[in-house]
Amino acid sequence: MKIETAVAALAALAQDSRLKIFRLLVQAGHDGVNAGRIGQELGVPPATLSFHLKELVHAGLIKSTQDGRFVIYRAQFDQMNELIGFLVEHCCEGHPEDCGFTAAGCGPARAKSAQKKTSPA
C-alpha cells in the first residue's frame, strides 16, 4: 500500500460519524447496509450521511451498489486488511507475530469461524 493511500484511509476514519459508519458496515459483512438504515441506526441526517459516505468511498474503504431503489454500502475488506497490514508491516523489527499480531486478515467468513471457535459449547 502506498503511503498516500494509507493517509487517505486514515483521514477518512479520523471522524466520529465516518468511523461509526465503517464499523457498522464491517459488522454487516458482505451483505452490506442500505443508506437509510445506516442513517437510522446512527442518527445521521441524510445530507450529512451522504457527505460521510462519499468520503469513505473516495478513500476506498467502502463501495456502493444499486439494488433496485436502494443503495447498498459494503466495507471493502481487502482494503481494510491492506491498511492494517501496512500499519504493522515493520512491527517488532519486521516480525509482527512477535507482537501478537496475526496477518490472517479479517472478513465476514473469518469472523464467523472465529466466533464459533471462541463460543462456549
CATH architecture: Orthogonal Bundle
State the major sheet.
3 strands, antiparallel
Here the CATH topology equals Arc Repressor Mutant, subunit A
Distance between the termini: 40 Å
Total separate domains: 1
- Trace the largest sheet across and list its strands: 1-3-2
Helical stretch count?
Answer: 7
Helix amount: 55-70%
Structure description:
With 121 residues, this protein is mainly alpha-helical. It has one domain (1-121): Orthogonal Bundle (Arc Repressor Mutant, subunit A). It is 60% helix and 12% strand. It has helices at residues 3-13, 16-28, 35-42, 46-58, 77-88, 91-94, 108-118; strands at residues 33-34, 62-67, 70-75. The chain has a three-stranded antiparallel sheet with strand order 1-3-2. Strand 2 and strand 3 form a beta hairpin. Helix 1 packs antiparallel against helix 4 (46-58). The longest helix is centred in the N-terminal third of the chain and has 13 residues, at 16-28. It is elongated and about 50 Å long. The termini are far apart.
Overview features:
mainly alpha, three-stranded antiparallel sheet, 121 residues, disordered C terminus, Arc Repressor Mutant, subunit A, 7 helices, 3 strands, 12% strand
What would you say about this model in short?
With 121 residues, the chain is mostly helical.
List the helices and strands and how they pair.
Elements: H1 3-13, H2 16-28, E1 33-34, H3 35-42, H4 46-58, E2 62-67, E3 70-75, H5 77-88, H6 91-94, H7 108-118
Antiparallel strand pairs: 1-3, 2-3
